[in-house]
Design a protein that fits this description.
The chain has 208 residues and is an alpha+beta fold. It has a domain at 16-152: Gcn5-related N-acetyltransferase (GNAT) (Aminopeptidase), CATH 3.40.630.30. It contains 7 helices and 7 strands, in the order αβαααβββαβαββα. It has helices at 16-28, 47-54, 57-60, 72-87, 133-147, 163-171, 199-206, and strands spanning 38-41, 91-97, 103-112, 117-124, 153-158, 175-183, 189-198. The protein has a 7-stranded mixed β-sheet with strand order 1-2-3-4-5-7-6, with helices on both faces. The structure holds coenzyme A. Coenzyme A is lined by residues 59, 62-63, 121, 123-124, 129-135, 158, 162-165, 167-168, 171.
């Protein structure tokens, strides 16, 4: 994945063999643990359903990485871009479904193999927001990124007014790293607060 507006802040170059192994793990990923429902890799055929999920402002407004404008076609391109990223071992887009086949959340994993670093973005369906499943799902997802994808650093960003994300990251023990400017696909920008967590710190805090 290309560098994005100054993140990750922590960049320790890992040996090429380690970076290759991380790419292989990203390519092989088919699911990940989530707070509600079951996650699988997004397919082109999901575009219309995913577009309906994203169209709710309570879902898309806080997220700068989504396509703009949001249309079924732009969402289809977004899915294709992530399928290509997964082939390159640099990212994977998961959709999480309930038993009835409705989307309950999505997770957008980005990986910088050369730094053993990654980030996770996403959103829950409004029905599930504010009920604790975001924190539970994020904790499970971060643990998966450290232990299954073999990452050393996770870097997260959120808009300064995104109180839930800030609480979530502070609660899970991420360090605040300052503020950057994040750029949307359409060239507009917004300020983002930045958090990071190392694998060592994660294990110390969350193991057992
Ligand atoms: C961000 C998101 C994933 C968090 O998941 P969630 O299930 O809603 O969050 P939780 O219920 O686990 O709550 C997280 C924290 O926010 C607090 N919180 C929840 N609702 C809140 C509200 N309306 N106002 C203030 N704080 C709130 C919770 O108390 C908790 O903090 P605590 O652990 O210190 O008590 C979810 O709200 C979401 O999808 N939002 C829309 C998209 C988005 O913002 N994505 C992230 C972009 S960085």
């Amino acid at each position: 994945m290309t560098e994005q507006g100054g993140i990750p802040i922590t960049r320790v170059v890992v040996p090429a063999e380690r970076a290759s192994r991380i790419r292989a793990k990203v390519r092989a990923a088919q699911s990940m643990p989530v707070g509600v429902g079951t996650a699988r890799v997004a397919k082109v055929e999901d575009a219309e359903l995913f577009h309906r999920f994203l169209s709710d402002p309570a879902v898309h407004t806080p997220i700068y990485t989504l396509p703009s404008p949001l249309t079924p076609a732009s969402v289809c391109e977004f899915i294709k871009k992530h399928l290509a990223e997964q082939q390159a071992g640099e990212g994977v887009l998961f959709l999480c479904f309930d038993d009835a086949g409705s989307i309950v959340s999505y997770n957008n994993i980005g990986v910088w193999p050369q730094w053993a670093a990654g980030k996770m973005g996403g959103a829950m369906h409004p029905e599930y927001q504010g009920g604790g499943s975001g924190t539970r799902g994020a904790a499970a997802g971060f643990g998966w990124m450290f232990e299954v994808l073999d990452l050393e650093v996770i870097c997260e960003t959120a808009a300064p007014d995104n109180v839930r994300s800030a609480h979530l990251l502070d609660r899970l023990g991420f360090d605040r790293m300052g503020q950057i400017t994040s750029y949307r696909d359409d060239g507009t920008s917004r300020p983002s607060l930045v958090w990071e967590m190392t694998r060592d710190a994660w294990r110390n805090r969350h193991s057992g």
